[in-house]
Amino acid sequence: MANQENISLELVYVGDPMCSWCWGFAPVVEKIDDSFTIPLRTIVGGLRPGDQAEPIDRMRPMLAHHWGQVAAASGQPFDLGGLDRTDWMYDTLVPDIAVVTMRSMAPVETLRFLATLQRAFYAERIDITDPDAHASLVSGFPVDPVAFVEAIRSPEMLAATEKDFLEAQWLGVTGFPTLLMRDGATTVPLSLGYAPFERVAERITNLIEKNHPDAAAGLICEIDGVC
């Protein structure tokens, strides 16, 4: 196996906890993370944070349509009763901050926590825009619930989240989910929007075998049988 010390590869996943197609993509990106030894970093893009939030009453028909599409394409569960809220703003800022907070406290758990938030919102009708709801959502994660909720409300985590938004813009991301591969100074799109695992995995494998053939056995789990 070639020495990988001089290979600078990174997968960058840009999504949002309240993006329905990101929930559909959750099993795909999890399997990608399991199938390659390339580090995967999750950043939040900010779907409708803060002053970009919209009332659920205005969005309900559109969301119901998208949720149905995502369920059909991905098989992910949705509880449409979650759209019955009234006087509620579709504001993604708090869950965005929560993902960044988990990344700061337990980086290896970031992707799993993102999926936990998505399941809570889409399949369990939990209001993840409420900071206090996150005390129970971090159950099973190696963080203190009280400290976690305090951090969500902190200016430091807000600033860190806003940096994520800026990085997503700098990367040229215009929609979610987006999966990129960074290879040194080069950034290559792997998936712009939802795509099945096989298509994304084939794209990654082809890039590895083309650009780093000597290291492929250590980067692609199916080649060496282990990760």
What does this structure look like?
The longest helix is centred in the first third of the chain and has 19 residues, at 56-74. This protein has ten helices and six strands, in the order E-H-E-E-H-E-H-H-H-H-H-E-E-H-H-H. It is globular, with a radius of gyration of 18 Å. The strands form two sheets. Strands 2-1-5-6 form a four-stranded mixed β-sheet, sandwiched between helices. A two-stranded antiparallel sheet has the order 3-4. The chain has a domain at 16-171: Glutaredoxin, CATH 3.40.30.10. With 227 residues, it is of the alpha+beta class. It starts with 8 loop residues before the first strand and ends with a helix. Helix 1 (20-35) runs antiparallel to helix 4 (110-123), helix 3 (93-105) runs antiparallel to helix 4 (110-123) and helix 3 packs across helix 6 (145-152).
Biggest sheet strand order reads 2-1-5-6
How many whole angstroms does the radius of gyration measure? 18 Å
Main sheet makeup:
4 strands, mixed
Q: Which topology of one domain does CATH recognise?
A: Glutaredoxin
Which ranges are low-confidence, i.e. pLDDT below 50, for 5 or more consecutive residues?
Answer: none
Query: What count of helical segments does DSSP give?
Result: 10
Q: What is the C-level CATH assignment of one domain?
A: Alpha Beta
The amount of helix comes to 40-55%
User: What oligomeric state is this?
Assistant: single chain
> What would you say the CATH architecture of one domain is?
3-Layer(aba) Sandwich
- H and E string: EHEEHEHHHHHEEHHH
| CATH homology-level superfamily of one domain | Glutaredoxin
Q: Please state the structural category.
A: alpha+beta
Mean of residue pLDDT values: 94
| DSSP, total strands | 6
Task: Report the sheet-strand fraction.
Answer: 5-15%
Specify the overall morphology.
globular
End-to-end span in angstroms? 14 Å
